[in-house]
């Protein structure tokens, strides 16, 4: 099953350290999204790529966060100088492009705990 | 700003009971509507979606939802729940813009007692 793949699945880091998460979307999906989910809340949109272009960023994405999708395939989400408030699950999702929208498929997420 | 409201945060039912989970959104334009389910320890999975056409949509595992445009609602229903339906359910909306990003509600935790 070649679904959306994320790694690492779990990361525990000390406050102030940098962390990077990787997402491999479903093959040939042009659209890629990053979301953040905390306990008791629904996923919150962070950023969106169409191929390699980052076309939309949420105000939630502070300047400590950076996302890339260099070749329009996999993507990385880096958090610099982590804070305890960054503890959450980071979800990656992808969908094919096309008018009218399409189903967005989610990965299993990467849990981040900042201690 | 666009938002999605799920009014029931926790629902407890016995097996065979009927289920209805409320979802309302605030956006006046054309939207696509979704219900996703997250079983314990698993990733978000699509239950059903509405893009256009018949406002009553049927999804997997016997779920259905009805889009009522005048009420900005997309309630999820199942006539008879099973223990295996225990999960968290998320309503989501996407606008017909370039990103089609999903805006999620806060979710409803459903516990079905055997």
Radius of gyration from the alpha-carbon trace of chain B, in angstroms:
14 Å
Secondary-structure element string of chain A: EEEEEEEEEEE
Distance between the termini of chain B: 41 Å
What is the helix tally of chain A?
0
Helix content of chain B: under 10%
Q: SS-based structural class of chain B?
A: mainly beta
Low-confidence stretches of chain A: none
Task: Tell me the overall shape of chain B.
Answer: globular
How big a fraction of the residues of chain B is strand? over 45%
What labels would you give this structure?
heterodimer; A: 115 residues; mainly beta; 4-stranded antiparallel sheet; B: mainly beta; 6-stranded mixed sheet; 12 strands; 0% helix
List the helices and strands and how they pair.
The complex is a heterodimer of chains A (115) and B (114).
Chain A: E1 5-7, E2 10-13, E3 19-24, E4 31-37, E5 44-50, E6 53-57, E7 65-68, E8 75-79, E9 88-95, E10 105-106, E11 110-114
Parallel strand pairs in A: 2-11
Antiparallel strand pairs in A: 1-3, 3-8, 4-5, 4-9, 5-6, 7-8, 9-10, 9-11
Chain B: E1 3-5, E2 10-14, E3 19-21, E4 24-26, E5 31-38, E6 45-50, E7 56-58, E8 64-68, E9 73-78, E10 87-95, E11 102-104, E12 108-113
Parallel strand pairs in B: 2-12
Antiparallel strand pairs in B: 1-4, 3-9, 5-6, 5-10, 7-8, 8-9, 10-11, 10-12
Question: Would you mind describing this structure in some detail?
Answer:
The complex is a heterodimer of chains A (115) and B (114). Chain A is an all-beta fold and 115 residues long. Chain A has no helices and 11 strands. Chain A has strands at residues 5-7, 10-13, 19-24, 31-37, 44-50, 53-57, 65-68, 75-79, 88-95, 105-106, 110-114. In chain A, the strands form 2 sheets. In chain A, strands 2, 4, 5, 6, 9, 10 and 11 form a 7-stranded mixed β-sheet that branches. A 4-stranded antiparallel β-sheet of chain A has the order 1-3-8-7, with no helix packed on it. In chain A, strand 5 and strand 6 form a beta hairpin. Chain B has 114 residues and is mostly beta strands. In chain B, the strands form 3 sheets. In chain B, strands 2, 5, 6, 10, 11 and 12 form a 6-stranded mixed β-sheet that branches. In chain B, strands 3-9-8-7 form a 4-stranded antiparallel β-sheet, with no helix packed on it. In chain B, strands 1-4 form a two-stranded antiparallel ribbon. In chain B, a hairpin with a 5-residue loop joins strand 7 (56-58) and strand 8 (64-68). The radius of gyration of chain B is 14 Å and the shape is globular. Chain B has strands at 3-5, 10-14, 19-21, 24-26, 31-38, 45-50, 56-58, 64-68, 73-78, 87-95, 102-104, 108-113. Chain B starts with a strand and ends with a strand. The mean pLDDT of chain B is 93. The chains are: A mainly beta (115), B mainly beta (114). Chains A and B meet through strand 5, strand 9 and strand 10 of A and strand 5, strand 6, strand 10 and strand 11 of B.
